[in-house]
Automatic annotation (TrEMBL):
InterPro entries assigned: Glc/Gal-6P_isomerase (IPR006148), Glucosamine6P_isomerase (IPR004547), Glucosamine6P_isomerase_CS (IPR018321), NagB/RpiA_transferase-like (IPR037171)
Pathway the protein takes part in: Amino-sugar metabolism; N-acetylneuraminate degradation; D-fructose 6-phosphate from N-acetylneuraminate: step 5/5
Annotated GO CC locations: cytoplasm
The protein's name in its UniProt record: Glucosamine-6-phosphate deaminase
Source organism of this protein record: Falsibacillus pallidus
Record carries keyword Hydrolase: yes
GO MF, one annotated term: identical protein binding
Residues spanning the membrane: none
Function in brief: Catalyzes the reversible isomerization-deamination of glucosamine 6-phosphate (GlcN6P) to form fructose 6-phosphate (Fru6P) and ammonium ion.
Domain Glucosamine/galactosamine-6-phosphate isomerase per the UniProt entry, residue ranges: 10-226
Reaction catalysed by this enzyme: alpha-D-glucosamine 6-phosphate + H2O = beta-D-fructose 6-phosphate + NH4(+)
PROSITE patterns: GLC_GALNAC_ISOMERASE
Length: 241
């Protein structure tokens, strides 16, 4: 794993944006795997700023997001569809038909998972997958105990994940209990992975990811086996290494 240490969150976001912009400039029709959560906010702001200032174009870029809540309309303020539009897609020249996010309102969730997995294959796979990480080691919404062999599937969210994400909802009761997520195997098929980690609250998680046991009880430990992972993390997140 290639680890890039930054002084703080802002520098982490800038470095991550530089990384993506470089790829997008070199491969104009790249397939980018995107993530939600608070961690990539800064990355997306930097990408928007770069698009404005330097004109980096996303006209032929395709994107696939990791996950979406089940049961929230795509227009709900807390859906990941809304998150991506508001934080990134509305501000760059990407074509909306080239942006893909699981449909958490599909009539048949089982069919939606198969469709999503097949769609990624049809795009030729993911060139670079951006990841954040949950405190319990979840990536996407793959909670502890998820099979390393999993493809896109429906998950029950862990109590701790619901609590952590309840900060965006009016109350804990409003947090969806399920989500659709790319599986661990889907993520591992990406040609390259860029993991962003910030803050002392993630220090133990990052320490475990790098030095802890390889186990399904800690989903992110799978990244130890990926041939091309770059971690951009700030000093606070790296403080236990
Ligand atoms: C959510 C997302 C993950 C994200 C994680 C951490 O559960 N599904 O993709 O990595 O939260 O979020 P944050 O960056 O807000 O700590």
């Amino acid at each position: 794993m290639n680890i890039i240490e930054t002084a703080n969150y802002e520098e982490m976001s800038r470095k991550a944006a530089d990384y993506l912009v470089k790829l997008v400039s070199a491969k104009k029709d790249a397939v980018l795997g995107l993530a939600t959560g608070s961690t990539p906010h800064g990355l997306y702001s930097e990408m928007v700023e770069d698009h404005k200032m330097n004109g980096t174009s996303y006209e032929q870029i395709r994107t696939v997001n990791l996950d979406e809540y089940i049961g929230l309309p795509s227009t709900d303020p807390n859906s990941y569809h809304t998150f991506m539009r508001k934080r990134l897609f509305d501000w760059i020249d990407i074509k909306s038909e080239n942006t893909h996010i699981p449909n958490g309102q599909a009539g048949s969730l089982e069919k939606e998972c198969l469709r999503y997995e097949q769609m990624i294959e049809n795009l030729g796979g993911i060139d670079l997958q951006v990841l954040g990480i949950g405190h319990n080691g979840h990536i996407g919404f793959n909670e502890p105990g998820t099979s390393f062999n999993s493809s896109t599937h429906v998950v029950e969210l862990a109590e701790s994940t619901k609590k952590a994400n309840s900060r965006f909802f009016a109350s804990l009761d409003e947090v969806p209990t399920q989500a659709i997520t790319m599986g661990i195997k889907t993520i591992m098929k990406s040609k390259e992975i860029l993991l962003l980690v910030s803050g002392s609250s993630k220090a133990e998680t990052l320490q475990k990811l790098i030095h802890g046991p390889f186990t399904e009880d800690f989903p992110a430990s799978i990244l130890q086996r990926h041939p091309n992972v770059t971690i951009i993390a700030d000093q606070d997140a790296l403080s236990l290494l």
